Amino acid sequence: MSNTNDPINSKVVIITGASSGLGESTARRLADRGAKLVLAARREDRLKSLADELTAKGAEVLWQVTDVTDRKQVESLAASAKKKFGRIDVLINNAGLMPLAPLDALKVDEWEQMIDVNIKGVLYGIAAVLPTMREQHSGHVINLSSVAGHKVFPGGAVYCATKYAVKALSEGLRMEAGDEIRSTNISPGAIATELTSTITDPNAAEAAEELYKVAIDADAVARAIVYAIEQPHDVDINEIILRPTAQEM
Fold it and tell me: Does the active-site annotation cover 159?
């Protein structure tokens, strides 16, 4: 799949939310570069289909149905990765939800869901891989935040709060990691994925539909992730913000 001089070749990479969107695009990019992939998502059919496709092209792929809101499932995912490949080089915390709505709509169940997936899911991922990365004296955690983690907008208060939290976790990990573990926070703008499909509030859905008219392909984010991973060990790409050129906010 890739030449042995490629810095990504043979790296063991866990990707959550790998069955579609950013996760799927990143898996394809990394497979082309010779990474050993550990793909996780809730949808077994999509996950298996992607794994079979990449395996047929020569990639080494392990897949495991995983709900990131379940700490034991995330721990099991990391354990499976280490058992099969012997190490964990990169964790891409990609799983996320964006059910936008104004606070007055009182969609408390959706608030809790966002907190469970967007914050606790990221923390469970970090907790699952950090001991192994410490043990091997190297590792890289890439968290998917959002431009919403830099700027709050009406209807996005809770979603923005979760993405601000991801940004804080990324920076906190960077500060605590020393020179062994790299931390990257990726903040995409409007990207053509399934993210808007979880919006149940009609007005918020309409606003998102308008914004996402300028959405760019998920591969744009995949390329940014690959860029962060391929840097030498002593180079830590901490923050990448990318938007469609036509996006204002």
Answer: yes
